[in-house]
Amino acid sequence: MSVEKPIQTDESLTTEQRNPAVERFLWALLIVILVGVSAGAAWKLWSVRQTQSSSAAQVVVLPPSGPLGVVSDFSLVDQNGNAVTLGDLKGKVWVADFFWTHCPGKCPMMTQRMGTLQSALPQGADARLVSITVDPKSDSPEVLKEYAQRFGAKDERWLFLTGDLQAIIRLAREGFHLNATENPNDHELRLVLVDRDAHIRGYFDLDEESVAKLRQQLTSLVAEGQP
Fold first, then answer.
1. What is the domain count for the chain?
2. Residue 121 lies in a domain
3. Which residues contact 162 (CB under 8 A, 6 or more apart)?
4. What is the pTM of this model?
5. % of residues, the chain, pLDDT over 70
6. Band (92; pLDDT cuts 50, 70, 90)
7. In this structure, is residue 1 part of a structural domain?
8. What is the CATH number of the domain that holds 132?
9. Same domain, residue pair 32 and 81
10. Residue 95 CB burial class (10 angstroms; 0-12, 13-18, ≥19)
């Protein structure tokens, strides 16, 4: 009489009898899945935080009681070859930016934003726009004059300034608390609102919402000084 051997099932297999290659594959697959899920969750969290951070950083504005600093004195030359110092702007509300005429990035858009502010200012408003080149070696008064005309700048309203590179870098860093280096590409694309006492009242990005808030703040400051 023959005796049938019991059929082995997965449950009856010992650890030694199982295929180690299959087990390694299953463990590797499980690890890949877990890593993928973790990475996806981490990326989602990072994206949300980046969006929140970007939205919060669009505009930095303080009320009259809390200026962000005081612009330091400077001596530069405008597009008409005239000397310009901080004293020439005392008593006026103004908006400043740092740019260069051959900028391959967003400088033209920043200049266009300044142009919208020029258009928004009422006739006779005691306000100025001040664009300071970070490439004075290339941006002579003549070059700035042509650039200003290209963007419809009015001489009595909008100054384009050039001068000594180190003085401009120092003004950007110490006077406006903005990044600037000898490489003209390394400068911040921000619009800076300054009041009549040379107090910095706000930093604004270039998106339409931020520029609209800047226009509102600028108009409000101009109105404060009118009789």
1. 2
2. yes
3. 76, 77, 132, 133, 136, 139, 140, 141, 144, 168
4. 0.71
5. 72
6. very high
7. no
8. 3.40.30.10
9. no
10. buried
**CA angle 55-60-61, nearest 5°?**
135
Pair (88, 50) in one structural domain: no
Q: Do 23 and 103 belong to one domain?
A: no
Following DSSP, what letter does each residue of 170-222 receive, concatenated?
HIIIIIS---B-SSTTSB---EEEE-TTSBEEEEE-SSHHHHHHHHHHHHHHH
The pairs formed by 51-58 with CB atoms below 8 angstroms and a separation of 24 or more are 57/205, 58/204, 58/205, 58/207, 58/209, 58/210
* Bridge partners for 93 per DSSP: 127
* Type of residue found at 52: Q
Residues with Cβ within 8 Å of 84's Cβ and at least 6 positions away in sequence, in order, are: 75, 76, 77, 78, 159, 161
Range of the domain at 107: 62-224
Which whole number is the average pLDDT over 191-210?
96
113 occurs within a structural domain: yes
Buried/exposed code over 59-85 (b: 16+ C-beta within 10 A; e: otherwise): bbbeeeeebbeebeebebbbbeeeebe
Q: Where are the beta strands (DSSP E) in the chain?
A: 59-61, 75-77, 83-85, 93-99, 127-133, 158-161, 191-194, 200-204
Residues ≥6 apart with Cβ < 8 Å to 158: 114, 118, 128, 129, 130, 131, 148
